[in-house]
Amino acid sequence: MSYIISIVLDTRREKENGKFPVKLRVYNKANNKKTVKLYSLDIDLTDKEFETIWINPENKSLRGANKKIRLRLLEFETRANDEAEAMTVFDIAKFETKYFRKSSDKNNVKYHFDLAIQKNMSNDKIGTAESYKYTLNSLAVFIDKDNAKEALSKIDKLTFDTITADWLKEYEKSMLAKGRSYTTIGIYTKALRAIFNNAIEANDISIDIYPFTKNKYRIPKSKKVKKALNAKQLKTLFGADAENENEQQAKDFWFFSYASNGMNFKDIALLKYSDIKEDKFTYYRAKTFDKTAEKTAITIYLTDFTNSIISNYGNKDKSDFVFNIVNSKDTIQTQYKKIKNFTRLVNDHIKRIAKRNDLPNDISTYWARHSFATNSLRKGASMEFVSEALNHSDLNVTKNYFAGFEDEAKKEFANSLLDF
Q: Are residues 108 and 193 in the same domain?
C-alpha cells in the first residue's frame, strides 16, 4: 500500500483559543517520491484533549462532547480510507476531489458534467466543454419543460440511476417534438454516455445501471450527407460579385480553405508565418491533434491564389499569426470566441452570395472541405491522394467520408471513370 491515512494534531501553531487544529494526514509514496498532505477537519483540541479522545486506547469511558468528537474523527478516517481503497491506483489529487465532495455527488449527473467541463477547459478544449454545457442545458429543459428556472434547480438533483433506457427514449421523443435532428440528439446522448463512463471509471456508480447497451438504449445514428459544389457551381461562386468588403472576405477565405485541401477555419486562424517555408506551409490539424499518438504534419503548396490571399489579408508583422483573426495575447477562450465569430461571419456572407447566384442556400465553410474532396476525385485523383490530403487516419475513413456525399457527386464520379 503506497499511502497511510491518519488523524493528527497539528501543533506547529497554537490558535487564539489555546488549542491546535486536528487534521487528516495523508502520506503517499509513489515513484520514489514522498508526499505528505494535511487537511483541516474544523476541530480544535488541546494536547491533553487529543490524547484523551483519540490517542488514549481507554476511550470507552468517553461521554458527552468528547464521545461525539471521537465519533466524528472516526467517520473522517473511515471515509478517507474507503475513498482511497476504492482507487485502483492511489492518486492524491483524485483523493482530494473525492474526499471533499458531498456524499451525494457520486451519483449526481451535474457534478460529473461539471468535472468534465472543468477538465476540458483546463486542457484548452473549449469546444468540447461547450458541448457538455449544451447537453446539460438540454437535459435540464427536459426535466421541467414548462419552467426553465425550475429546470436549472432540478438538474442539480438528477441522479444516474434516474436515467434509464425508458427515460432516454422519452428524452429522444421530446427532442424530436421540438424539431431537433437525430444528429443533435446523437451529439447530446454521446456526451451523456461519456459522463456515465467517467463515473463508472471513477467507481462512483455501478455498471449495472448503464443504459447505453444494445438491449437498452441505442444512440441514434443519422447518415450525414456531405454537401459539395460541383465544378460549374464553384466557377459561379468564384466569379460572383461581392457587394461589400465582408462578402469579398467571406468568398476569399472560403476559397483559401478550398485551395488548401479543405483546410479547417480554426487551422487557418492559427496559421503562423513561421509555418511558411518558400512555396509551401505546414501545419497540424487542430481537430485531430490530441486524438492521435502519431502527429502527422500537413503540407500545402502555395498557389498564386493562396499567395494573394496571404498578401491581401496577412498581418504586416510577420512574427505572429498570418491572419488578423486571433493574436498571441488572446487567451484560449478568447481565441475560441474569435474563431467562432469569424466562421459565423464567413457563413453569413457566403450564403448571401450564394442566394443571389442560385447556388445552394445552406452553403457553409464545411462545404469548402467537401468540395475539395469530391472535385479532387472528379478530376481523377486517387482515393489514397485524397486520404492523405484530408489527413485521414487510414483509407477506410476516406471511403466512409466519400460514402456520405450526395448521390449526384457519386454519379459524376462513376461516369468519369471511363473518361480516359
A: yes
- Residue 73 C-alpha cell reads as 474523527
- For the record, the C-alpha cell of 79 comes out as 471515509
Q: For the segment 332-342, what is each residue's pLDDT rounded down to a tens digit?
A: 999 999 999 99
The answer to whether residue 291 sits within a structural domain is: yes
Helix, strand, or coil here: 17?
A: coil
Buried b (16+ CB within 10 A) or exposed e, 352-377: bbbeeeebeeebbbbbbbbbbbbbbb
CA distance 181 to 222: 9
Decide if 240 contacts 251 (C-beta within 8 A): yes
Instruction: Retrieve residue 93's grid coordinates.
Output: 489529487
* CA distances (Å), origin 15, targets 25, 49, 393: 19, 15, 62
Q: Tell me if 172 sits within 8 A of 220, measured CB to CB.
A: yes
Cβ atoms of residues 133 and 155 within 8 Å: no
- Which residues have C-beta within 8 Å of that of residue 321, sequence separation ≥ 6? 269, 270, 271, 272, 273, 315, 327, 328
Residue 246, pLDDT > 60, answer: yes
Predicted structure pTM score: 0.72
The answer to whether 109 touches 195, Cβ cutoff 8 Å, is yes
- 259 and 119 assigned to the same domain: no
Residues 296 and 409 in one domain: yes
Q: Which domain holds residue 84?
A: 3-99
